Amino acid sequence: MKHLLYKEFKLAVPPLAYLLIILMSMSALSPAFPSFVPLIYMAATYTFLFIGMNKTTTTNDLYYTCTLPIKREDVIKARVITVAVIQLFEVLLVFAFMSVATFIFDANSKESMQVSLNMHQPIALLAAYLISFSVYDLIYLPWFYKTGKTIIANMLVGVIVTAIIGGVLTMVPFFVAEEMFTVGLPNSNYILQFGLLLAAIGIYIAIKALVIKLSTKNLKKLDF
Length: 224
Prior knowledge:
Helix content is 75%, strand content 0%. The chain is mostly helical and 224 residues long.
Protein backbone atom coordinates (compact mmCIF):
# COMPACT_ATOMS: atom_id res chain seq x y z
CA MET A 1 0.00 0.00 0.00
CA LYS A 2 2.84 2.37 0.82
CA HIS A 3 4.32 1.98 -2.68
CA LEU A 4 0.91 2.37 -4.32
CA LEU A 5 0.30 5.62 -2.49
CA TYR A 6 3.75 6.81 -3.52
CA LYS A 7 2.84 6.07 -7.15
CA GLU A 8 -0.46 7.90 -6.77
CA PHE A 9 1.03 11.14 -5.49
CA LYS A 10 4.17 10.94 -7.61
CA LEU A 11 2.68 9.92 -10.95
CA ALA A 12 -1.13 9.97 -10.90
CA VAL A 13 -1.77 13.39 -9.34
CA PRO A 14 -0.64 16.10 -11.79
CA PRO A 15 0.73 19.42 -10.48
CA LEU A 16 -2.23 21.16 -12.13
CA ALA A 17 -4.58 19.43 -9.68
CA TYR A 18 -2.80 21.07 -6.72
CA LEU A 19 -2.83 24.42 -8.50
CA LEU A 20 -6.57 24.16 -9.10
CA ILE A 21 -7.24 23.27 -5.47
CA ILE A 22 -5.27 26.30 -4.25
CA LEU A 23 -6.84 28.74 -6.72
CA MET A 24 -10.37 27.45 -6.25
CA SER A 25 -10.09 27.42 -2.47
CA MET A 26 -9.35 31.13 -2.70
CA SER A 27 -13.01 31.65 -3.61
CA ALA A 28 -13.58 31.55 0.16
CA LEU A 29 -12.05 35.04 0.25
CA SER A 30 -15.01 36.49 -1.62
CA PRO A 31 -18.07 37.46 0.46
CA ALA A 32 -20.22 37.09 -2.67
CA PHE A 33 -19.38 33.41 -3.12
CA PRO A 34 -21.57 30.84 -1.30
CA SER A 35 -19.63 28.65 1.11
CA PHE A 36 -20.30 25.50 -0.90
CA VAL A 37 -18.69 26.83 -4.11
CA PRO A 38 -15.27 25.22 -3.32
CA LEU A 39 -17.14 21.90 -3.16
CA ILE A 40 -18.20 22.29 -6.77
CA TYR A 41 -14.73 23.38 -7.85
CA MET A 42 -13.31 20.26 -6.25
CA ALA A 43 -14.92 18.26 -9.05
CA ALA A 44 -12.57 19.87 -11.56
CA THR A 45 -9.58 18.27 -9.88
CA TYR A 46 -11.13 14.82 -10.32
CA THR A 47 -10.92 15.23 -14.08
CA PHE A 48 -7.17 15.77 -13.94
CA LEU A 49 -6.73 13.09 -11.29
CA PHE A 50 -8.45 10.37 -13.32
CA ILE A 51 -7.65 11.37 -16.88
CA GLY A 52 -4.32 9.52 -16.78
CA MET A 53 -6.19 6.35 -15.83
CA ASN A 54 -8.56 6.66 -18.77
CA LYS A 55 -8.59 3.61 -21.03
CA THR A 56 -8.46 5.87 -24.06
CA THR A 57 -5.20 7.61 -23.08
CA THR A 58 -1.73 6.44 -24.03
CA THR A 59 -0.61 6.31 -20.40
CA ASN A 60 -3.59 4.17 -19.29
CA ASP A 61 -2.43 4.13 -15.70
CA LEU A 62 -5.39 1.99 -14.67
CA TYR A 63 -4.34 -0.87 -16.95
CA TYR A 64 -0.71 -0.56 -15.87
CA THR A 65 -1.64 -0.62 -12.18
CA CYS A 66 -3.91 -3.64 -12.61
CA THR A 67 -1.11 -5.62 -14.30
CA LEU A 68 1.04 -5.29 -11.19
CA PRO A 69 1.06 -8.25 -8.76
CA ILE A 70 -1.37 -6.55 -6.37
CA LYS A 71 -5.02 -6.94 -5.42
CA ARG A 72 -7.64 -4.94 -7.28
CA GLU A 73 -8.95 -3.89 -3.87
CA ASP A 74 -5.57 -2.34 -3.02
CA VAL A 75 -5.70 -0.37 -6.28
CA ILE A 76 -9.04 1.09 -5.23
CA LYS A 77 -7.95 1.72 -1.64
CA ALA A 78 -4.89 3.67 -2.81
CA ARG A 79 -7.02 5.87 -5.04
CA VAL A 80 -9.69 6.46 -2.40
CA ILE A 81 -7.04 7.42 0.17
CA THR A 82 -5.47 9.76 -2.39
CA VAL A 83 -8.84 11.41 -3.04
CA ALA A 84 -9.47 11.73 0.72
CA VAL A 85 -6.10 13.43 1.26
CA ILE A 86 -6.84 15.89 -1.53
CA GLN A 87 -10.29 16.61 -0.09
CA LEU A 88 -8.94 17.26 3.40
CA PHE A 89 -6.17 19.41 1.92
CA GLU A 90 -8.79 21.57 0.22
CA VAL A 91 -10.83 21.84 3.43
CA LEU A 92 -7.76 23.09 5.29
CA LEU A 93 -7.08 25.66 2.57
CA VAL A 94 -10.69 26.85 2.55
CA PHE A 95 -10.66 27.44 6.29
CA ALA A 96 -7.27 29.15 6.03
CA PHE A 97 -8.62 31.58 3.43
CA MET A 98 -11.74 32.12 5.50
CA SER A 99 -9.51 33.15 8.39
CA VAL A 100 -7.80 35.67 6.12
CA ALA A 101 -11.22 36.95 5.04
CA THR A 102 -12.12 37.88 8.61
CA PHE A 103 -9.20 40.31 8.64
CA ILE A 104 -10.26 41.83 5.33
CA PHE A 105 -13.95 42.30 5.95
CA ASP A 106 -15.81 43.69 8.92
CA ALA A 107 -17.90 40.84 10.34
CA ASN A 108 -20.69 43.29 11.25
CA SER A 109 -21.08 44.84 7.82
CA LYS A 110 -23.82 43.82 5.40
CA GLU A 111 -21.27 43.15 2.67
CA SER A 112 -19.61 40.44 4.73
CA MET A 113 -22.75 38.42 5.50
CA GLN A 114 -21.37 35.41 3.62
CA VAL A 115 -17.99 35.69 5.36
CA SER A 116 -19.86 35.68 8.65
CA LEU A 117 -21.69 32.52 7.62
CA ASN A 118 -18.47 30.88 6.45
CA MET A 119 -16.18 31.75 9.31
CA HIS A 120 -18.44 31.86 12.33
CA GLN A 121 -19.95 28.42 11.74
CA PRO A 122 -16.84 26.37 10.93
CA ILE A 123 -17.95 23.18 12.70
CA ALA A 124 -21.25 22.97 10.82
CA LEU A 125 -19.51 23.88 7.56
CA LEU A 126 -16.88 21.16 8.03
CA ALA A 127 -19.62 18.59 8.63
CA ALA A 128 -21.40 19.75 5.45
CA TYR A 129 -18.17 19.44 3.45
CA LEU A 130 -17.49 15.88 4.64
CA ILE A 131 -21.01 14.72 3.79
CA SER A 132 -20.94 16.42 0.39
CA PHE A 133 -17.56 14.91 -0.50
CA SER A 134 -18.91 11.49 0.46
CA VAL A 135 -21.92 11.85 -1.83
CA TYR A 136 -19.76 12.94 -4.75
CA ASP A 137 -17.37 10.00 -4.30
CA LEU A 138 -20.28 7.57 -4.09
CA ILE A 139 -21.52 8.79 -7.45
CA TYR A 140 -18.23 9.34 -9.27
CA LEU A 141 -15.84 6.54 -8.25
CA PRO A 142 -17.95 3.36 -8.74
CA TRP A 143 -19.22 4.80 -12.02
CA PHE A 144 -15.67 5.46 -13.23
CA TYR A 145 -14.42 1.98 -12.38
CA LYS A 146 -17.38 0.44 -14.16
CA THR A 147 -16.27 1.92 -17.48
CA GLY A 148 -12.61 2.76 -16.91
CA LYS A 149 -13.14 6.10 -18.60
CA THR A 150 -13.36 9.68 -17.38
CA ILE A 151 -16.78 10.50 -18.77
CA ILE A 152 -18.67 13.75 -18.49
CA ALA A 153 -21.90 12.19 -17.25
CA ASN A 154 -20.60 10.99 -13.89
CA MET A 155 -18.95 14.34 -13.18
CA LEU A 156 -22.05 16.34 -14.12
CA VAL A 157 -24.41 14.17 -12.08
CA GLY A 158 -21.99 14.29 -9.14
CA VAL A 159 -21.63 18.07 -9.33
CA ILE A 160 -25.38 18.69 -9.55
CA VAL A 161 -26.25 16.39 -6.65
CA THR A 162 -23.35 17.64 -4.51
CA ALA A 163 -24.22 21.29 -5.22
CA ILE A 164 -27.80 20.72 -4.08
CA ILE A 165 -26.84 18.79 -0.95
CA GLY A 166 -23.92 21.09 -0.11
CA GLY A 167 -26.04 24.19 -0.63
CA VAL A 168 -28.81 22.91 1.62
CA LEU A 169 -26.46 21.74 4.37
CA THR A 170 -24.45 24.96 4.50
CA MET A 171 -27.59 27.10 4.62
CA VAL A 172 -29.43 25.08 7.29
CA PRO A 173 -27.90 27.01 10.24
CA PHE A 174 -29.20 30.27 8.74
CA PHE A 175 -32.80 29.08 8.64
CA VAL A 176 -32.99 26.64 11.56
CA ALA A 177 -31.03 28.01 14.52
CA GLU A 178 -28.22 30.33 13.48
CA GLU A 179 -27.11 31.15 17.03
CA MET A 180 -26.78 27.47 17.95
CA PHE A 181 -24.27 26.94 15.14
CA THR A 182 -22.38 30.23 15.43
CA VAL A 183 -19.14 29.90 17.37
CA GLY A 184 -18.66 32.34 20.23
CA LEU A 185 -22.27 33.24 20.98
CA PRO A 186 -23.83 32.53 24.40
CA ASN A 187 -26.47 30.29 22.81
CA SER A 188 -23.95 28.25 20.83
CA ASN A 189 -24.69 24.56 21.28
CA TYR A 190 -21.25 22.98 21.00
CA ILE A 191 -22.53 19.55 22.00
CA LEU A 192 -24.88 19.62 19.03
CA GLN A 193 -22.20 20.99 16.70
CA PHE A 194 -19.55 18.44 17.61
CA GLY A 195 -22.21 15.73 17.61
CA LEU A 196 -23.06 16.61 14.01
CA LEU A 197 -19.36 16.71 13.14
CA LEU A 198 -18.80 13.23 14.61
CA ALA A 199 -21.83 11.98 12.70
CA ALA A 200 -20.44 13.51 9.50
CA ILE A 201 -17.07 11.84 10.10
CA GLY A 202 -18.86 8.53 10.61
CA ILE A 203 -20.81 9.01 7.38
CA TYR A 204 -17.60 9.99 5.56
CA ILE A 205 -15.77 6.84 6.68
CA ALA A 206 -18.76 4.56 6.07
CA ILE A 207 -19.34 5.85 2.54
CA LYS A 208 -15.63 5.61 1.76
CA ALA A 209 -15.80 1.92 2.76
CA LEU A 210 -18.87 1.47 0.56
CA VAL A 211 -17.13 3.23 -2.33
CA ILE A 212 -14.15 0.86 -2.00
CA LYS A 213 -16.48 -2.16 -2.04
CA LEU A 214 -18.52 -1.02 -5.05
CA SER A 215 -15.50 0.21 -7.02
CA THR A 216 -13.57 -3.02 -6.38
CA LYS A 217 -16.56 -5.03 -7.61
CA ASN A 218 -16.74 -2.96 -10.79
CA LEU A 219 -12.99 -3.04 -11.40
CA LYS A 220 -12.90 -6.84 -11.17
CA LYS A 221 -15.47 -6.99 -13.99
CA LEU A 222 -13.75 -4.36 -16.13
CA ASP A 223 -12.52 -5.67 -19.47
CA PHE A 224 -9.29 -4.05 -20.65
